[in-house]
Description:
The complex is a heterodimer of chains A (108) and B (122). Chain A is mostly beta strands and 108 residues long.
Amino acid sequence: EIVMTHSPATLSVSPGERATLSCRASQSVSSNLAWYQQRPGQAPRVLIFGASTRATGVPARFSGSGSGTEFTLTISSLQSEDFAVYYCQQYNNWPPYTFGQGTKVEIK
Amino acid sequence: EVQLVESGGALVQPGGSLRLSCEASGFTFKSYAMSWVRQAPGKGLEWVSSIGGTDGQTNYADSVKGRFTISRDNSRNTLYLQMESLRAEDTAVYYCVKGDHGGVYYLFFNYWGQGTLVTVSS
Lengths: 108, 122
């Protein structure tokens, strides 16, 4: 089973600032990596798939990069609605599909 | 607009059974793999099971294999999860999720329902 590890666990950022979230896989997942956002009390939604492709309707301030074992989600200028928990998911080796434990982005 | 509406969540005793349903609309249901992903209270996301669109191929997490059965009725646009021998650690919100293509391979999840809560407790 591939283990996905987020860092940091919590990120404190001021509105308008840049946020950089990292996700590491225990072995290569190629570019088969998705990012999800979960706002409080809501279901997750996909932001990025294929490591760097934005899903339909996702603002351009969200960008993904990386391949192999190291991945990054960048939010260029945080808006109030971006304070949430972010999860990465690998879909290269299955079953099982595995998620990281998440990074919580909170208001500084 | 894609919609996924789960139902069937409840309070059930350890060892009990439950069947979850998910009614789908807004897309050609039979053409896409469907999955269940769960989230224990205050915890992260855990993939549970997936089923292919037309071939019906299934996969399960080890934690539920032999106890849970995923199925679908393409004529009713409905996904199911039959859960047997429930344990306290199965307590979670169960999300119905749509895959990005028809097979159970290389899946990410592009639409999520709002979830249904299953509580296993005496």
